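ok here's GntR family transcriptional regulator:
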Amino acid sequence: MQTDLACSRLRELILDGVYPPGSRLTETEVAATLHTSRTPVREALRALAADGLVRPAGRGVVVVALEEGDLDEAYQVRAALEALTAELAAVRQREGRIAPADLRELHDVAARTATATAEGRLTDAVPLNRRFHRTIAELAANALALRTLERVWDQIQVSTLRSLAPPARHAHVSAQHEDLLAAITGGRPEEAAAIARAHVLDTRVTTMKEGRP
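and the structure:
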């Protein structure tokens, strides 16, 4: 239990940029920050290393950012998996297997994401954007796809936190989300998959042009 809590909290600190790429972490330092013993921290660091978020460095670890080629590959995998989950969600909606309350939650997250990005509240927008895509993956009901996406999302988020930052992207991202919502709500699998794939690849192009922070 302590290991799970330590891993979850440390993952949050990395994803939020408290420990940006290149940060060197030691068991002692992290244990002090998390107010726990070194044993759960040691196990947490091993788990995060297995997920590709940190790598061993001397007596500690270093937070890892994907190189450009690896980041491009991560986006390709994300695009394929999000196309799959959007397709599966639309199929389940067409077959009446998605509860209305769950669909309303997806619409609510999309609206909150659009508002946060339009107002320039990127600290709120980034996790909301991820929650939007995660909710679609949950509606797809494919546990393996969701687990794999979680790892890919983590690696991408550590490597770049500003895919929503350019002002010109705000309306564009929100419009793509609305199109994706419409396709899933309407039970149109092929359309949902195409929109999801295009959305991720579009984000990839913008990220590569902007460069990583």
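+1. The two ends are 34 Å apart (CA to CA).
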